[in-house]
Amino acid sequence: MATHRRLDHQTRQHQIVEAARDLIANGGVDALTIRGIASKVGVTEAAIYRHVASKEEVILLLIQEVEESLFQAISRATRSDRHALERLEHMLQLHVSYVELRQGISFVVIAQAAQFEEPRVRSAGRRLVEKYLSLVAEIISQGIERDEIDRTVAPDAAAMIFFGMIQSAVTRWLFDPSTHPLGENSVSMWKLFRTSLEFSDEDADLHPSENGRG
Q: Is a pLDDT exceeding 80 seen at residue 210?
């Protein structure tokens, strides 16, 4: 019986997360209420409160779900042993596809987490961002060690720029998808970002393997 109750609780929480995502996608974070979730799920508010105590707990569930699904989506790039620049480009492509598929909900949730006074929500949001930045910085550091990226590049700073360019592209896309297509903008930004990581002309002769890369 205990196992059945645990599975039922997990199923209900999954329904709550799906309903919350739908509410945010259609009406923004202001539309996220326990009443709205109950209506989407098709149960009473009391039934929802048996599984989450507040709107803050719903946001926590959303952050957890974003963390799990996002890192699963980009894992093919992060676990690869290819050239560091190829891994970063692949990671960007996978992240953009993830954002488009989920209507930008991940960035909305992260931004909202920063505005909550609830320490658990802020901590969870910060942890997700720091985990992402550390992953990007690690790929860049590996690229530097393998002479695939210019040694003057600061991994942590470059990681913040990488994350920031995705965030800015998503923000413009959310405001006007037709004018600012996410895929096209990400390609343009990647070309600029890649240039900042590649060896300078005066160093090119020291890295013949890089000199022939397109």
A: no
Is residue 116 domain-shared with residue 158, that is, in the same domain?
yes
pLDDT at 206: 55
Check residue 158 and give its pLDDT. Answer: 98
Q: How many distinct structural domains can be found in the chain?
A: 2
pLDDT tens-digit map of 163-174: 999 999 998 998
Q: Are residues 190 and 87 in the same domain?
A: yes
Same domain for 22 and 117 = no
Q: Are residues 121 and 39 in the same domain?
A: no
**DSSP class per residue in 45-83:** HHHHHTT-SSHHHHHHHHHHHHHHHHHHHTHHHHT--S-
